[in-house]
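G., the chain you wanted modeled:
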Amino acid sequence: MVTIKQIADMCGVSRGTVDRVLNNRGNVKPEKRKRVLEVMRELNYQPNPAGKALAARKHKPVVGVLLPSEGIVFFDDVLETMHRMAKRYEEYGLRFVWRTLRGYHADEQCAAIEELRHEVNALIVNPMSEPAVIQKIDECVADGIFVITINNDVELSHRQLYVGSDYYEGGQTAGALLQMIGPKDLRVGVLLGSKTMLGHRQRLDGFCDILRKDPHFQLRAVAENEDDERISYEKTKEMLTRHADINALFVVSAGAAGAGRAVKELGRAGELTLIVFDTIPTTVTLMKEGVIQAALYQHPHQQAAKAIRAAFEYLVNGVRPEKQQDIVQNEIRILQNVGR
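Predicted structure as tokens:
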């Protein structure tokens, strides 16, 4: 088994230098760091898990998780996987602090980030694209906190990694799908969570960029539902009453159950094409009832696992991500494959 002492001897450096390179801390001259890493690769050096755990416990790293998950069923799968992986990484000394919010309120998210900022070494956050939130994220990075945005990204921040789907591509996919399965003369209504969320805007942009090339397409109405099922129901019912000619609906984020209930109450099930995101239980039920025709699945368990693993690799192994985005694939689900 290769030891740190052997690597140090081969590189002509101290064991302390090798340890600093291995754990990504302390000042090491670039040429020495490069040589140590080269020798580690040549010898296929694998740190002792017990040693990594001991080092992590000594430094007591903390991961903060901040999600606007209250009332959004999609995040149930995200949190389930996060908690399972957090339990697994406890043996390495990682500790997790959990914070959840309801809705999109910049002041509440900023307050939560500020609270976590003073006790965490890494932060996994689903952020609003608001200047105050972006500033808080940048302050965290300036403090040496490793910031991962999950499921939604922010513009112009210094976060180190985004884990989630390609929202623009998801919107394009929804638009192309609607062209294939919807009526020829498309008169569309859109429900989105909040325009303060970059991803929601990107999905709408991708959707419209595909469909505006179609001379038979009309965007009749856009409403924000705050990813709340009750608000989604009310906004959908109001939209379909005011614009009775709407024959297709696109739900950009959460709110499919509320929209579906409004469609059913108005007697429009089956005659109106409804495309949504996420295959949560209520969506599957509405698909079986013929209310929702298709859903785009964005792999919540994968997103959760990738985010937690990235925090672990950085805090315990000192490994930074090779790229700034880790994109999961959008997948089309219809009634025949929704149970996969």
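The longest helix spans residues 300-317.

Shout if anything looks off.
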